[in-house]
Structures are given as C-alpha cells and as structure tokens.
Amino acid sequence: MGNADHTRRAECPPAHFWRRWTTDAPPPQWPTDDDSEAARTQAEIAAASSRPGAPAATEAPYRVMIVEDDPSQALFAESILNGAGMQAQVVPDPDLAIATLEVFRPDLVLMDLHMPALDGTELTHMIRGHGAFAQTPIVFLTGDADPERQVEALELGADDFLVKPVRPRHLIAAVQNRIRRTRQAHAARPDERHPVTGLLTRSRMLQHLATAIPGTGALFLLELEGTSALRDRIGYAAQEAVLVDAAREIAARAQGQASARLSDNMFLIHMDAAPADVAAHARDLRESLARHGFRSGDDIVRLRARIGALVLTPAHQDAGGALTAAEQALRQARQDADGVSVHVEAPPVPTADDGMRALARRAVDDRLLELAFQPIVAVAGGDEPQFQSLVRLRAPDGRLHTAAEFLPAAEADGCLEAIDRHVLDLALDTLQRQREQGRRLRLFVSQSPRSLGHDGYAAWLLMELGARELDGSQLVVDVRVDDALVHALSLQTFASAAQTVGVQMCLSGYRSDAEADALLAQLPLSHVRLSSHYSARLGEQDVRDDMRTAIDRAHRRGLLVIGQQVENPQVAATLWMSGIDFIQGNLVHEADRDVDFDFQHAVL
After folding, report:
1. CA dist., res. 290 & res. 41, Å (int)
2. Is the distance from CB of 268 to CB of 222 less than 8 angstroms?
C-alpha cells in the first residue's frame, strides 16, 4: 500500500494539509517555490475544483465514501477530495461499509481493491445487492495493474479503475465526471414515476424507504377489495383502466408525497403525519375512494379499500421491518368492520424458559447448530438428489433440540436472523463439499421471512454463493405460509434479488384458501409443500377433496407439489393418486446427517 520511493511521495499532501478544513486551523501556509511538487499538488486541486465539471455553487456537494484500510492512502484521497470542495468520508474497516452507506448516502464509492478483512470485489457484490445503492458508482483506487483482476471487478459491478500512483487532478476529474453523469441521469428521470399515474415505480419506492427509514411519518398500505370479481365482470382491460384511474386518485390524495403501486390492487404511501392523525388520514383516504366513481364504459365503479397504517418510530430500523408491521396492520384491517387498522407494537411475550433463550443465544457462537437431511423423492421416479434441511440444536449435555423447540425462544431473544444466516451457511457448506466430491444436489432450507426481509440479507446470500462458486438453483428457500402472509412484500423484494442467480422458493404448509392462494400469485415460487393437515386426515373425504383442489391450483401455476410427513403406504398411495409430485417423510427415509440416499433405486 505505502511506497518508500521518493519519486512517488509527492502524491501525498504536505504535513497537516487536512487541517485547512478544521475550525482551529491556522491561516494556510502555501508552499514556497522550492517545494515545487507540493505546489503543483495545490495548483492541481485549485484548478480541478474550478473546472466545468465541478458542482455548481447551488448544487449539493459531491459525497464520496472512501473504503481504505491504509491510513496514509485514505488521508491522501480524503484531503484531495475535500480540497476540491467535496464531502469525503473514510471507512477504514470494510465490514462497516454497508452501515456507512446507509447513513452517509454517498454519490460515489472509492475503494481499495485489496483489503485483508473483506476483498473489494466482495464488497462491490454486497453494494450492488443492496437495493438503495445498486446504481451508486464504484471506482477502485489500486496498485494492482493485472487486467484480469480488473475485468473480474468490472464484471461484478465496478465502474472504473484508477491505478496508483494517481495525480490529484486525475482523481478529482474521475470522481467528478462519474458523479456528474449519475446526477444528470437522475435529473432526467427525477422520481422514476409512472408516466400516467404519477406514482413512483415499485423499485423507486423501496429505494425511498431505504433512505427514509429510520425516520418519521407514517406508512399506509392500501388494498383494493373485490378486484378479481371486477375483472370477471368487466374484463381485464377495463379493470386495468379502472385501477389506473384509482392510482391517479391515490396519487392526488398523497399530495406529492412518496407513493407507489406495489401490485395490481395494492398501494403504499409514505406520508408526513402526526401519530395522533394517522387513523384519521387512513379513514379519509378510504372514504374518498369509496365516494369517487370510476367510469368503465357506461358503468360507474366504486372501489372499497382496506388500509393498514404504521406510525414510524426509531424502533423501525429498516424498510423490511416497517413493511412487515404495515402488512400486519393490513391483515387486521381485513377483519375489522371499518377496514382500517393502525399497527401497535406488541409488548414482548415473556417466556418461562430462560434457559432455552440463553441456549439459543449461544447457538451460533458456540457452534451448537447442526443439520439433518430428509430426502424428497419424486413419485414418478428420478435420480435427482434433493433433501430437506432440518436444523437441530445440540445442548452441552448432548440433548438434541428440534427447530420447534428452540426457534421461538431465538425469535423472542432477537437472535433469529443470526441463526438463519448460520443455517444457510451450513447448507452452503454441504453443497460445496458435495460438489468437491463430484456430486450435485439440491437443498430445501427453511428461513424466517423476517430474516429474509432484512436489508443486505439477499446481498449476503448472493455473495456467499459466488464465493463458493455454487449454482443458485441448488438452493430452495423454504418459508411457511403463516409467516409469508405477514411478510409478503419483503419476501417479494428478497425473491427478486435471489432469482437473479437461480435461487428458488418453496411455500410450506400450504392449504387452499383465499389468502394462501393469493400468495401463489404474489411470490415467485417453484414448489409448494402441502400442510401436514392433509397427510394426517386423508381418511376423510372432504379433506381428500380439499387436497386435490390445492394440488390442482398449484399445478395450474406451474408449481411442483411436495407431500410431507408421509408415515405409511396408504397415505403415500392416496397422495400419488391425487397427482402429487414429491413425497417426503419417514416412510421414505428418516432424517439423518448423511446425504447419501439412493434416489435412483428408491421405491415408494
């Protein structure tokens, strides 16, 4: 990083150069004629900061985040950029880069390529996976002239390379040009709004929330009722015209504040509102839509809405958590007579088993977690190996606890995300070991939607898959229906990122009803796992009929269906005759720590 060659030392600013921007700095002492190299550095800064590419006086200063673990190199870049009128923030530890991004909100990231804690290419991958910063320019400042290494970083999403040693004017020009072009592009599409409705696009709204939360105000999650019946009555084209008119009305009621259409019949508004006024705002919005007549041909259509509202507080640390709370309020609004519900944070539920909470807290650090695997076998035959991963916690006394025993305690104690990450890490380790042995398999891994919705979780998963050189299609993320109903929006955000590398999703515990069937349309699923309710009660005719309906609805969506907890041949036979695709249960094989089941010769 450093260099003892005196011909390069002039690239560093004079001693105490940085103090020009501190309040206690003495009057500037400009270099004398015999200090020609330092004088040239000062002249370059002055010239570059006044060049046409520099920000105008009325424009917000350019903000640059410098990720550099070498103090002298960091000070050099910081001093040069600050001297050119930019705001530079040094991050000496790359592990803190994502957190600093969210607070500092830079126009550009300038980083070293080679850092011991976290490689620059890995950090680039993480930044590109973070929705709010997917388009932020990234420039590497590096002494590595290897073109292959540079191409690798560019393929991962870096925008440019500056090879050390770099002259101040070159550094300033490169940074200014990149930021100026990015700002001009944003100015050309300032809000990324829908050209007809004026609402923000879904992706732009999520970027807005990532910036605005933690913050103040309120979220209003609005769902229009009866849209399926409306489509059946007037047709898809006429229905869409009505919904576009409704979107215009919602945009007008939002009065220019951030709002978006998230799906066919769901809208989100972030509004500046005092906590005491949130319920009244929600009712006014609902009543205004009900009074408004939307024309469809010769008919007048009136729309009913349900609204879940959330008062934002410092407790809502990220967009995913806030959306989850708003979804919970919307679910309550569906049950309330007036169709409006304001989310109230539930007090923590006390648990008598403090010992289990303490054990769950230690699970990751003490490596108490392990995986068992149960084969998922195709009823039509096939030799593709795929397993359900089942997490277990082994206590110091040797006792093995199931997920049902310790995960509720982990959630109550706030360590569920750490456990979910570790479970995925163990699963990826298994896939990597099998690949090294020349064997490819697919793992279904259960995850909490609350964890999947956390900022940076998808980026972390993509980075881990890339680091291990694993095909994302070897991983199926498994979420429970009850959890998915509460976290549908955050799951959609996670899935849109995970799909880019082929990661699939499975909805577990599926029974056909209005809410669960809606999830089949909302989430990009590849599989559904039927509720154990079916396998436990297949002797009842109405249960068998209901199961066949569920299987048919999943197949109509192009999804593969797994029957779980199959314990006897009669259940297996009924599932087979009902059109199931896969069977999982102790009849096939009990869960154990091996993944060497013979799929080719499996007999059901």
Report:
1. 67
2. yes
The b/e string for 219-237 (b: 16+ C-beta within 10 A; e otherwise) is: bbbbbbeebeebbeebeee
Burial class of residue 386, CB neighbours in 10 A (0-12, 13-18, 19+)? buried
pTM of the model: 0.56
Domains with residue ranges and CATH for the chain: 9-188 (3.40.50.2300), 202-342 (3.30.70.270), 359-583 (3.20.20.450)
Residues in the chain: 604
C-beta atoms surrounding 195 within 10 Å: 5
Helices (H), 445-560: 449-452, 457-468, 481-486, 488-498, 514-522, 532-536, 541-556
**What Rg value do the Cα atoms of the chain yield, rounded?**
28
Handedness of CA 378, 596, 585, 554 (dihedral sign): negative
295 has which bridge partners? 300
What are the phi and psi torsion angles at 502 (to 5°)? 90, 0
As a whole number of angstroms, the distance between CA 81 and CA 75 comes to 10
Where helices occur in 88-226 by DSSP H, the ranges are 97-104, 120-129, 147-156, 168-188, 202-212
Give the span between the Cα atoms of 458 and 127, in whole angstroms: 11
* Helices 457-468 + 416-436 axis angle, to 10: 20
303 alpha carbon, distance to own chain's centre:
32
Beta strands at 63-67 and 87-91: parallel, antiparallel or unpaired: parallel
Angle (CA) 253-254-259 rounded to 5° is 135
Collapse the DSSP code of 100 into the 3-class scheme (helix H, G, I; strand E, B; otherwise coil) and give the result. helix
Of 560, 558, 603, 550, residue with least CA distance to 581: 560
What's the pLDDT tens digit per position in 473-502?
A: 999 999 998 888 877 777 888 888 888 889
* DSSP label of 102: H
pLDDT > 70: percent of the chain: 83
CA distance 374 to 584: 7
Amino acid, single-letter form, for residue 281: H
pLDDT band at 189 (very low <50, low <70, confident <90, very high): low
Q: Look at residue 267 and give its three-state secondary structure.
A: strand
User: Phi-psi region for residue 235, left (φ > 0), alpha (ψ -120 to 50) or beta?
Assistant: left
**What one-letter code names the amino acid at 33?**
D
If residue 327 lies in a helix (H) or strand (E), which one and from where to where?
helix 319-335
Number of C-beta neighbours around residue 81 at 10 A: 26
**Model pLDDT for residues 105-118, shown as the tens digit of each residue:** 899 999 888 877 67
Mean pLDDT estimate for the chain: 81
Q: What is the mean pLDDT of residues 407-426?
A: 89
- What strand order describes the sheet that includes 218-224? 259-263, 266-271, 218-224, 305-311, 340-342
Q: Which residues pair with 446 in a beta bridge?
A: 478
Q: What is the mean pLDDT of residues 309-325?
A: 82
How far from the centroid of its chain's Cα atoms is residue 124's Cα? 16
Q: Which distant-in-sequence residues (6+ apart) come within 8 Å of 262 by Cβ?
A: 202, 205, 268, 489
Exposure letters 303-329 (e unless 16+ CB within 10 A, then b)? bebbbbbbbbeeebebbbbbbbbbbbb
Q: Is the pLDDT of residue 5 over 50?
A: no
